[in-house]
Amino acid sequence: MSQSKRIDICTQNTISAVSKQKRLRSIIFYATGIILGIVCGLVQQPFIQELMDFIATVFTRLFSFIAVPIIALSLINTLAKLGRGKESGLIFRRTIFYTLLTTIVAAVVAAVLFKILAPANLPAEVVGAADPNAVQKASYFDHIINVIPNNLLQPFVSGNVLSVLLISAAVGLALALLEPSAKKEAVENLFGGLQDILFKLIRWLIAILPIGIMGFIAKLIHELEGGLILGGLATYFAVVIGSNLLQMFVILPLLQLLRGLNPLRVARGMMPAIAVAFFSKSSAGTLPVTMASAEDNLGVNPKVSRFVLPICTTINMNGCAAFILITSLYLMQNAGYEITTMTIVSWIFIATIAAIGNAGVPMGCYFLTISLLSSMQVPVLLMGVILPVYTVIDMLETGVNVWSDATVANVVDRDLKGKLDESSDDKLAPHSVA
Question: How many other CB atoms sit within 10 Å of the CB of residue 235?
Fold first, then answer.
């Protein structure tokens, strides 16, 4: 064995050992936060309860602070990098069609399951109090008017996420349609740099997240009243998990069957990517594995996989759409809003658009839901109760998202068989594989 190979092996072993140590420290940190949260919740000491309330409030505010800018920058950067060539347009149109189709269906399945299982409300002191005079006074036309911004900065200052999404989509598309130039490249680099800064802030926030979990768990235990909370929350979690499982095992395989694919073969080929997604909770981090699985195991045209999968990793969020819809309806219901059929239909489209603009970072969907509801003056204290078990939901959602990405890539590849130039052309890829 050559000296260079020995060095490479030693380096890989060292990196692996350091990674294992980091994971172990993270597990210990989370376990400590959960245990301390339980202990503090059981201790009937006013100062400790005030401290736990303070910690929970601080983390809720931090979530709201980081969410709006990261949503805007993620959507702008995604849309700005879209290709405009002939083959790019051919692939892109199908990618958008199947992405919207699967995301809308995921939201519809979630809405139907929410209506059928109807999770019960929690006590008012757990979810926070809404202003009874503000609930459902505005018409749907008023909500639409509130989404349309009258200046550039106001939606960001007020936290109006729907307006932010509208502005970001317009800016991203306008940037994508500009002719290549040094100015365009400078603007793209600026937005990309700002996004990197916010990603760093999010990593810092996640690093201290067990402290927030401690505060939320303590608050939950302190406010726990009989079995009502457990019953309502258990049904809520059943709706979230059930809708994701239906999307994974019924809806997406059915789409593959309708397009002439064998779901079992596709699942076997994509299993490495799905497994990595489930345990890493990051569809963006799983992207290299997803691409390799699609190309090497299933023979997907690199022109398709290297164009479709990076886009889908950012905008194809089936699991997130289901979570946004279910969680938003549940919090609104707890806050006293009347959940009508029109409300549910409206939120199917809101959840779809919001999921497309979701940041490709851990807990991005959680942050986005908080921002959406905060902008509507819906109390979000209940999000702290959901947080301790969100890790499990996040694992399942990420697995569903990557499975949906794989489905779209394979279906688009099937649709375009024989219609693309078979020669490799990496210029079609809107994102770097690395």
Answer: 16
| Of 148-162, 187-201, 412-426, highest mean pLDDT | 187-201
Report the mean per-residue pLDDT for the chain.
78
Q: Residue 202 has what pLDDT? A: 73
**Per-residue model confidence (pLDDT) at position 249:** 95
Handedness of CA 99, 102, 105, 110 (dihedral sign): negative
According to DSSP H, which parts of 281-301 are helical?
287-292, 298
The torsion angle over the Cα atoms of residues 367, 345, 242 and 135, rounded to 10 degrees, is: 60
| Measured distance CA(430)–CA(53) in Å, rounded | 45
- What integer is the mean pLDDT of 224-247? 77
CA distances (Å), origin 276, targets 99, 283, 289, 330, 399: 21, 9, 8, 30, 8
232: three-class secondary structure by DSSP: helix
Tell me how far apart the terminal alpha carbons of the chain are, to the nearest angstrom. 29
Q: How far is CA 367 from CA 14, 34, 131, 319, 372, in A?
A: 34, 21, 23, 14, 9
Residue the block writes with tokens 């397009």: 259
Which pLDDT value is given to residue 3? 57
**Residue 420: is it exposed, middle or buried by C-beta count within 10 angstroms (0-12/13-18/19+)?**
middle
Spatial neighbors of 393 by CB under 8 A, at least 6 apart, are: 237, 240, 241, 323
Determine the Cα–Cα distance for residues 380 and 387; give it in Å rounded to an integer. Answer: 11
Neighbours of 169 (CB within 10 A): 18
Residue 423 phi/psi, 5° resolution? -70, 145
Q: Which amino acid is at 85?
A: G
Look up the pTM and report it.
0.66
Residue 379, token pair as written in the block? 């109390």
Q: What is the pLDDT of residues 126-167, one digit of tens each?
A: 555 444 444 344 444 655 676 687 888 877 776 666 677 778
Angle, vertex CA 296, rays to CA 291 and CA 298, nearest 5: 90
Asked whether 221 and 41 are in contact (CB, 8 A), the reply is yes
